[in-house]
Design brief:
It is a single chain. It is built from 26 helices and 9 strands. By secondary structure, it is of the alpha+beta class. The relative contact order is 0.10.
Length: 672
């Protein structure tokens, strides 16, 4: 392999401008082959007396080189075509090699001997514990014949997950509707109509092209006065990749999900667990499936009065509009009418929250909150709209955050973050600084910047929270400092916490600036807007509880005789005051079932309860109180995987978590 391949050279930040598609596969294949040979040498050298430096840090160096290279090239997949195929192949090769490594009996034995033989530091013990768990969950305790079966099963699971996502993407793209009568778009904000018109122009059409992307669906369901249009897009969206709707059976995920649930259940039993949900809890704060079930049941019970009140409010306002048969495609429309009655004008408020001004405000807020400096830095990037933030404290550079904010072909249509490199100190004391990337698909108009809704802002703050968590951890070993490896609950907690500042009028007033005039808006206007945005919050809460309960129950219930749709219907009856309709096939389009959150979607709610209680300290002491901010950084972000989520919370709050703040935020109390 030519030394000119930039992926095979040592790099701090990858020189993206020098990377060619033909560099990708050969580089990863060579790194894997070199790692394979190096592992043999490590095992041989550590055979008699395994040591921290000789075993743990030596293997971490191999993992780091491979993992950092593969994650660095992931953004190149957005270019589509051969780039996407090459990145997928590289990621698949890394996954296969990691599985091979974690089933290496000799290597596993060395880690176990080291863990049992030394009085290690707290960080060493925590690292070894997580490494040993990795081996166990990869089938390291199984006999060779069982390992082969386990590996084949995992391969099929991965293929089915990819098929599920492919079916969903195909079903989403298969539906579109061209409107030539603008009257049918009455009520839909001008910015959304302009996006629809632009989409039609791109296709060489005249009119307004509706698709099933999230922003279009939300705009139509919340604002379109033409009820048949709302019905059509609701049914198309909620029957995607199923046996119902306009493309029934064409991309049906029902059988795919059924097979996935069966194989996950078998995988869990191979590893000695009762079901897949129990296996999932091995990396989370909750100890038992009954604990999670009780948590979800308690939240459902507490929220029930709110959901029933809000359902009655919707029926009342619908009846006033001569709609006496409230249907699922009416829920968001009349919820929006109630918000507007209380002063919520999403389009008006968007004009004060252009992306660039929101990002600037978020940076300033972060600097005040946790005492760091974030400034633009120069480097090669994968797209000319990407920028890089260098994060420092005093004169010390802590890490870097890439920001890739705007929509373009090939990108996912929702915000997300990627832990590209983890903080790590090797045997020579050399520090590797963390790198994270934030991706979004905010739409820029032809004559206007990207204007954010309140939901857009919450999502931006949330993903920025993941980036801060990745960059501000002080754990020395990459296994403890990678946010994506902390467990979904611990990983989501700081991000859910950061979202809370979006519900503070005082915070938003510092960010708000009209994109044309630069004028700010009043605190009273922002407070009314925030309060109005929370009207009918039970719709979202009920749906989230429904999805969390559905995901967990699907992974607890294998073999109990119920079909997937029966479980959907039963969970919906428990959690929702307004049902989604008999033809809806929610499970078939619920992508969190196949993107690493399986049996863990409840973690969003779990983390939300922790976050609300943590934010209550800032409400009590000041939104940017220096001491609370220092504790946020020191107790919640810095430890990484060094200690349990509950222990970090207690260090920050001085007590165990309580659900009171969460219930109060949602207009509830423990007595409801």
């Amino acid at each position: 392999m030519s030394p000119a391949n930039p992926l095979l050279q040592a790099f701090d930040l990858l020189p993206y401008n020098a990377v060619r598609v033909e560099h990708l596969r050969p580089a990863i294949e060579l790194i894997i082959e070199e790692n394979r040979h190096a592992l043999v040498q490590i095992i041989d050298s550590q055979h008699d007396t395994p040591t921290w430096d000789g075993l743990v840090l030596a293997v971490a160096d191999l993992d780091k080189r491979l993992g950092d290279t593969v994650t660095a090239i992931i953004p190149l997949s957005f270019r589509g075509g051969e780039w996407a195929d090459a990145v997928d192949d590289c990621h698949g090769a890394m996954t296969a090699f990691n599985q091979e490594k974690l089933q290496n009996a000799a290597l596993y034995a060395l880690y176990r001997r080291l863990a049992a033989s030394v009085a290690a530091s707290e960080e060493h013990r925590a690292t070894l514990q997580r490494i040993l768990l990795d081996f166990h969950l990869a089938g390291g305790d199984l006999a060779p014949v069982e390992q082969a079966r386990f590996t084949e099963s995992q391969s099929v699971i991965s293929r089915l997950e990819a098929e599920f996502q492919g079916n969903l993407a195909d079903a989403t793209q298969a539906w579109s509707k061209l409107l030539t009568d603008e009257n049918l778009l009455a009520g839909i904000p001008a910015q959304c109509r302009a996006a629809m018109a632009g989409r039609a122009i791109e296709q060489g059409l005249e009119g307004w092209l509706l698709t099933l992307d999230e922003s279009t669906c939300k705009a139509v369901l919340a604002h379109a006065r033409h009820r048949p249009l709302r019905e059509e897009i609701y049914l198309a969206s909620n029957t995607r990749a199923s046996d119902q709707g306009p493309n029934a059976w064409v991309h049906d995920n029902g059988p795919v999900l059924q097979a996935l649930l069966r194989l996950r259940h078998e995988k869990a039993q191979m590893l000695g667990y009762t079901n897949f949900a129990q296996l999932s809890l091995q990396t989370k704060a909750a100890q038992t499936t009954s604990e999670v079930a009780a948590f979800l049941n308690d939240l459902t019970t507490s929220s029930r009065p709110l959901l029933l009140r809000e359902a009655e409010q919707l029926r009342k306002i619908a009846a006033e509009d001569n709609c006496h048969d409230l249907q699922p495609w009416d829920h968001e429309f009349y919820a929006q009418r109630l918000r507007e009655q209380k002063g919520s004008s999403d389009q008006y408020m968007r004009e004060y929250f252009a992306f660039e001004s929101v990002l600037h405000g978020l940076i300033v807020m972060t600097q005040r909150l946790v005492g760091v400096t974030l400034e633009l830095a120069r480097t090669d990037v994968w797209d000319d709209k990407v920028r890089l933030l260098q994060v420092s404290r005093g004169k010390e550079v802590l890490g870097h955050i890439f920001i890739d904010p705007y929509a373009r072909p090939g990108k996912a249509p929702w915000p997300w973050s990627l832990s590209m490199r983890s903080r790590h100190i090797d045997a020579k004391g050399q520090l590797t600084r963390p790198v994270c990337a934030l991706f979004a698909s905010f739409a820029q108009g032809r004559e206007t910047p990207a204007l954010l809704s309140h939901l857009d802002m919450r999502q931006l703050f949330h993903e920025f929270g993941h980036c801060l968590h990745q960059v501000l951890t002080t754990a020395s070993h990459r296994r403890l400092s990678n946010v994506s490896g902390l467990g979904r609950d611990a990983g989501e907690f700081p991000s859910q916490l950061l979202e809370n500042w979006c519900s503070s009028a005082a915070c938003l007033q510092e960010i708000a600036s009209h994109y044309q005039t630069g004028q700010t808006t009043t605190l009273e206007s922002l407070q009314r807007w925030i309060e109005a945005e929370h009207i009918q919050g039970g719709l979202r809460m009920g749906r989230e509880l429904m999805l969390a309960s559905l995901d967990f129950e699907l992974h607890c219930s294998a073999g109990d005789g119920r079909s997937i749709q029966q479980i959907v219907d039963q969970v919906g009856a428990r959690t929702l005051a307004l049902q989604p309709g008999s033809t809806a096939r929610i499970a078939c389009s619920f992508d969190y079932l196949v993107t690493g959150y399986e049996a863990g979607y409840y973690c969003y709610k779990w983390a939300e309860v922790y976050a609300a209680d943590a934010f209550a300290r800032f409400e009590e002491e000041g939104l940017f109180d220096p001491e609370a901010g220092r504790d946020f950084s020191r107790e919640l972000l810095a430890p990484g995987g060094l200690r349990a989520m509950s222990a970090s919370f207690e260090a920050f709050r001085g007590r165990a978590v309580s659900a009171r703040a969460y219930l109060r935020q949602n207009g509830l109390s423990l007595g409801d």
